[in-house]
Specification:
With 311 residues, the protein is an alpha/beta fold. It contains ten helices and twelve strands. The structure holds 3'-deoxy-guanosine-5'-triphosphate and magnesium ion (MG) (4 copies).
């Protein structure tokens, strides 16, 4: 484990440090509460051994603050053991109320210290498995199973946040609505399995273009999502007007260049997409207006022959 040892006494810290290292742990030392918080934020710590009496911020206060920092993360819980010379009832109660997990005396025997460290390693291992599983579940909940792109739910959440940010910064916000042309006929002609493969390839191509799109060498910060069925959305949160138009035509070209055979797609003979793209000032309109405009322009792109972008 990586242990954060918080103690204002250099002598005690050196003794404890040597013992913990002899059990195979890695130790970081902080000589006061604030230094402990700084180290905790800078490094991945598995366990904290916390002194109580320290000049400035004491151990109770430092513990309360560390617990507040952990508050945003669902599985974050770093075991904190108080180490003190005065293990009175009132100290024990205050320690637990501040968010401490255990309490040991400064004169603790080597055997007991080692046993407690073992128990805490088990907690640290469990916590790390939970946090990994949680991250995996979160990722699964945000992604579309077929294409691996962000799903509609995740996109809506992202758009809300980015829209607010763009409004505060007074920057334009762009959206491209992408729809595969005559895709019903593709399924009818080639079958649904081939249809799925085709959607995967188109999604991949769009994602690749969006990830590599640059505006004068600056990455756009844009992302693609599966909006539903054979429709995709590309969110361009911080684009100068016109940038979204360039991206839209490069997407149309890139999908056409895949040359995926589609005999029933009019004269094109290959799979194509149509795009409606809108760019609006977030302080002057609602996000629904952005989607409505993009949708109208997509309809126009379909009407005027497909395999094109209207922006
Ligand atoms: P348009 O050019 O006007 O967009 O015509 P279209 O045929 O693409 O539009 P329409 O909305 O009539 O048909 C969309 C088709 O997309 C129908 C649906 O079966 C198919 N589709 C939607 N999701 C999936 C999917 O996940 N896999 C497959 N294979 N097909 C899908
Ligand atoms: Mg002290
Ligand atoms: Mg459609
Ligand atoms: Mg349709
Ligand atoms: Mg379509």
């Amino acid at each position: 484990m990586k242990i954060l040892l918080v103690d204002d006494s250099r002598a005690i810290a050196m003794v404890m440090c040597a013992r913990l290292e002899s059990f195979g742990h890695e130790v970081r030392h902080a000589a006061n509460g604030q230094a402990a918080i700084d180290l905790f934020q800078a490094e991945a710590i598995d366990l904290i051994l916390m002194d109580i009496e320290m000049p400035g911020m004491n151990g109770f206060e430092a513990t309360t603050r560390i617990r507040a920092l952990e508050g945003h993360e669902p599985w974050a819980w770093t075991p904190i053991i108080f180490v003190t010379a005065t293990d009175t009832d009132s100290n024990l109660v205050t320690a637990i109320e501040a968010g401490g997990d255990d309490f040991i005396s400064k004169t603790v025997s080597e055997a007991v210290l080692q046993a407690k460290m073992k128990a805490m390693s088990r907690i640290a291992a469990l916590r790390s498995r939970l946090s990994q599983a949680n991250r995996k579940l979160q990722d699964q909940a945000n992604r579309d199973g077929l294409t691996g792109l962000l799903n509609r739910r995740a996109m809506d959440l992202q758009v809300d946040t980015l829209w607010e940010q763009a409004a505060r910064a007074g920057r334009p916000f762009s959206l491209l609505m992408v729809d595969v042309d005559n895709f019903k006929r593709y399924n009818d002609h080639y079958g649904h399995l081939a249809g799925d493969e085709c959607l995967r390839a188109v999604a991949n191509c769009i994602d690749h273009c969006v990830q590599h799109a640059h505006d004068d060498r600056t990455a756009l910060g844009a992302f693609a999502a599966r909006y539903g069925g054979e429709e995709f959305a590309v969110v361009v949160p911080d684009a100068a007007p016109g940038v979204h138009a360039g991206l839209a035509s490069s997407l149309v070209e890139a999908v056409h260049a895949l040359r995926i055979p589609h005999e029933k797609n009019g004269d094109f003979g290959v799979v194509t997409i149509s795009i409606g793209g809108a760019c609006i000032d977030p302080t002057a309109g609602h996000v629904k207006e952005l989607f409505r405009q993009a949708d109208d322009l997509l309809y126009k792109a379909k009407e005027s022959g497909r395999n094109r972008a209207e922006v």
